[in-house]
Design a protein that fits this description.
This protein is mainly alpha-helical. Helix content is 73%, strand content 0%. Helix 3 packs across helix 12, helix 5 packs across helix 7 and helix 9 packs across helix 13.
Length: 302
């Protein structure tokens, strides 16, 4: 008997083990349930955030008698612009809007420029003690304004900048540039050194590198900073309240705070004032939303 008389049986290839279909279905079901839970929680949080805006909208155009009769939750049966017109004319809201726009826009641009120059020196210039300098900047934007208001008041008074928009612009630009410097220095610290070395070999100066290479690549991040700085300055209340006592220099947030007294309060006027104060910042955010998201996504990709 020879080996050829037997059939040689070769083992078939063993298929790779796959998870059971029931287990896959249960995994998909769990993912689907968790997705719905996240969506519901997000929707509830969005409703809670939009609820104050909804109250301001429906009560700004509600007659005072109807507010007393039906309360703040009811939708007005008739539109009454009396509270909005009285507030607009009573506080000279056109002037307050102009003051806030000038201060917020100036602070946003100056703070972004100072942040870029400081971060360029720290992140790319590699100055000595870079870590300690960044730690100081991080500590600077965590200090509350209440701890700085008295020395800032003395400083502006001695320099002749008290009750001037220029004094508030300089102070807020310096304060907010601390956060911008910390953020941009982290970005520029990971800047490709090959690009900078190639520019130096081509004979580019430091100013040319900043203007032609660093600025175009960091423009989305700068747009994010400008948007944040504008909205933060627009909503700032404490420092403009202390440093801008005259009505001609007051901002929108200070004008809104002046409406609510200790013993007197007009709910419809407060709602109209809140709506008038919120809309400009909301419009600015909607206009620059695409720029803001582009900068955030670019930072995430990097």
């Amino acid at each position: 008997m020879t080996a050829t008389d037997f059939d040689v049986v070769t083992p078939a290839a063993v298929p790779a083990s796959n998870p059971p279909r029931g287990k896959q279905r249960r995994s998909r079901a769990r993912r689907g349930i968790s997705g719905w839970v996240v969506l519901i929680v997000t929707f509830v949080c969005a409703l809670l955030m939009l609820f104050p805006f909804w109250l301001a909208l429906i009560n700004a155009f509600k007659p005072g008698a109807e507010y007393i009769e039906t309360g703040p939750m009811s939708i007005p049966t008739t539109l009454d612009f009396t509270a909005l017109i009285d507030f607009w004319q009573g506080v000279n809201f056109n002037q307050k809007l102009w003051n806030s726009a000038v201060i917020s826009g100036s602070v946003a641009l100056i703070a972004a420029g100072v942040s870029l120059l400081s971060a360029y020196a720290i992140g790319i210039g590699r100055v000595k003690g870079r870590v300690w300098i960044l730690a100081i900047f991080m500590l600077a934007f965590t200090i509350p304004q209440e701890a700085l208001v008295y020395p800032l008041f003395i400083l502006t008074r001695d320099l002749g900048l008290y009750d001037t928009q220029l004094g508030v612009i300089i102070i807020l630009a310096v304060l907010q540039s601390a956060f911008g410097t910390y953020m941009l220095a982290s970005v520029l610290g990971s800047f490709p050194p090959e690009v900078l070395e190639a520019a130096r070999i081509d004979g580019a100066t430091r100013l040319q590198i900043l203007w032609s290479i660093v600025l175009p690549l960091t423009r989305p991040t700068l747009a994010v900073l400008v948007t944040f700085f504008f909205i933060w300055t627009w909503n700032d209340f404490f420092l403009p309240l202390v440093l801008l006592p005259s009505a001609a220099n007051q901002t929108v947030s200070v004008a809104l705070g002046a409406l609510s007294g200790q013993y007197t309060s007009d709910p419809t006027a407060l709602a109209a004032a809140s709506l008038a104060g919120i809309l400009p910042a909301l419009i600015f955010f909607i206009l620059f939303q695409r720029t803001l998201m582009r900068g955030v996504n670019l930072g995430a990709v990097k």
